């Protein structure tokens, strides 16, 4: 009968130990539950296009997956181009996305889904043969551009982190941690008027479990 009185303090202690071990997390209101959705990379690698994104977004709705919570539709690597525009903005590949990214976002939002884009915390994004601009040193400008497109998610990769020739730069004990590059994008996103899901895709370099929870969501 009195077993519970003994067990309870043990449980409380265990809870306190657990709470102390969990890192503080970035909390901007999103990702209260694990974010779910669809990303071009898993089937189309770095070759997305407008038709693919639209048809798969529509399929999330038509198949009933959206109702189950699969709502993020993210266009991964391959959407942008090598050169920024004259004012330094990123832009989309017009052959692959003839109607452009703002219109793509409107289409996705029109289906009741969430609009995700992809960039890279390095000099170039992750493609070996085709050069595409990365966001390193352009974080504030790119975050503002993405917010102007009404994005809901940013997947942020880690290729070409040190040099335009270093692909993919998988250095698990880097001389400088990727954390500062990711922190700069976290800060840039926080300065926008939208709550964006920030997906840190840095492949485990420099023990992200120790620093990434404060900077992003996944
Ligand atoms: C889009 O990608 C699909 C699948 O790879 C391909 O069949 C189609 O030709 C592409 N469309 C354009 C406009 O590039
Ligand atoms: C746009 O994508 C097509 C198909 O991958 C490619 O041939 C073309 O070079 C790209 N354009 C630019 C400006 O990168
Ligand atoms: C930069 O130029 C592009 C056209 O190349 C334009 O769409 C965009 O609004 C400009 N951005 C700013 C911040 O002026
Ligand atoms: C982060 O941004 C600051 C400017 O706000 C810059 O001085 C610093 O070099 C950046 N850090 C990295 C690692 O890119």
What does this molecule look like?
Keywords: Disulfide bond, Glycosidase, Hydrolase, Signal. One of its GO terms (biological process) is carbohydrate metabolic process. Pfam families: Melibiase_2. This protein is of the alpha/beta class. It has a single domain, classed as Alpha-Beta Barrel (TIM Barrel). Helices cover 32% and strands 10% of the residues. The chain has six helices and five strands, in the order αβααβαβαβαβ. It has helices at 3-21, 41-44, 50-62, 100-110, 139-148, 179-190; strands spanning 37-39, 72-74, 114-120, 153-157, 197-200. Strands 1-2-3-4-5 form a five-stranded parallel beta sheet. Strand 3, helix 5 (139-148) and strand 4 (153-157) form a beta-alpha-beta unit. Helix 5 packs across helix 6 (179-190). The longest helix is centred in the first third of the chain and has 19 residues, at 3-21. It is globular, with a radius of gyration of 20 Å. Bound molecules: 2-acetamido-2-deoxy-beta-D-glucopyranose (4 copies). One 2-acetamido-2-deoxy-beta-D-glucopyranose (NAG) is lined by residues 180-181, 184.
């Amino acid at each position: 009968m009195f077993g519970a009185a003994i067990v309870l303090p043990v449980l409380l202690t265990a809870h306190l130990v657990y709470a102390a071990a969990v890192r503080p997390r970035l909390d901007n209101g999103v990702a209260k539950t694990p974010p779910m959705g669809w990303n071009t990379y898993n089937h189309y690698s770095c070759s997305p296009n407008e038709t693919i994104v639209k048809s798969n977004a529509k399929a999330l709705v038509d198949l009933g997956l959206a109702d189950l919570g699969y709502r993020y539709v993210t266009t991964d690597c391959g959407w942008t181009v090598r050169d920024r525009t004259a004012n330094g903005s990123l832009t989309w590949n017009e052959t692959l996305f003839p109607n452009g990214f703002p219109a793509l976002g409107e289409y996705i939002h029109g289906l009741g889904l969430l609009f995700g884009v992809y960039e890279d915390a390095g000099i170039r994004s992750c493609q070996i043969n085709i050069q595409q601009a990365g966001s390193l040193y352009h974080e504030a400008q790119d975050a503002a551009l993405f917010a102007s497109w009404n994005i809901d998610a940013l997947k942020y990769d880690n290729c070409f982190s040190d040099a335009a020739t270093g692909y993919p730069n998988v250095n698990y004990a880097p001389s400088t941690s990727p954390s500062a590059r990711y922190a700069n994008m976290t800060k840039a996103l926080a300065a926008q008027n939208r709550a964006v899901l920030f997906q840190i895709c840095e492949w485990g370099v420099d023990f992200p479990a120790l620093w990434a929870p404060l900077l992003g969501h996944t």
